[in-house]
Amino acid sequence: MFHSYKNLFKIQWKIYSLDNQHPLPRPIPLDGLALFILLLLPARLIAIPAAAVFQQPLLGVTVFFDCLLTSVLLKYDPQGRPFLGFVYDFLCFLVRPHKRDFSGRSLLKKRRMVLWWESFDLEDYGGTDDLF
Q1: Rounded to two decimals, what is the model's pTM?
Q2: Where does residue 98 rank: exposed (0-12), middle (13-18), buried (19+ CB within 10 A)?
Q3: DSSP letter at 105?
Q4: Residue 130 to residues 47, 84, 123, 125, 127: CA-CA distances in angstroms?
Q5: How many C-beta neighbours within 10 Å does residue 94 have?
Q6: Helix (H) or strand (E) holding 6
Q7: Helix or strand or coil: residue 123?
Q8: Which residue in 23, 71, 67, 65 sits closest to 48, CA to CA?
Q9: Which residues have a Cβ under 8 Å from the Cβ of 131 and sit 6 or more positions away?
């Protein structure tokens, strides 16, 4: 049942046209657009040596690698979530405190207290060595 409800509330925002007069041939998901913008710098770093090897314009090779990386990461579906949502949840997991109670609140660190332990001295029992 969980998977059926999860699919009901899975909303993917998409851009279908640039304005009312120019529809796109294929809708662009907004997370794909965000990934495209985030991956411009890594694609540029990959494209610099590749453009020199293949003797192609740097801008064209950058856009090619950026589209390639974006399409690969959009198809990557960790745990049934969009890639950016997965990265956001993973970074939140690394940052937030890991010790929580059952209501979800983080537990406070308890201060260590010095334990004072006293016991009787049993060496001077006042008798012989054979008690039993």
Answers
A1: 0.56
A2: exposed
A3: P
A4: 89, 77, 13, 11, 8
A5: 8
A6: helix 2-8
A7: coil
A8: 65
A9: 125
> In this structure, what token pair is assigned to residue 28?
């662009």
Structure tokens at 9: 């509330």
What CA–CA distance (Å, rounded) separates 11 from 13?
Answer: 6
Alpha helices in 19-82 (DSSP H): 30-38, 40-54, 58-75
pLDDT band at 118 (very low <50, low <70, confident <90, very high): confident
How much of the chain is helix, strand and coil, in % rounded to 5? 50, 10, 40
Encode pLDDT of 86-116 as tens digits.
888 889 888 877 777 777 777 777 767 777 7
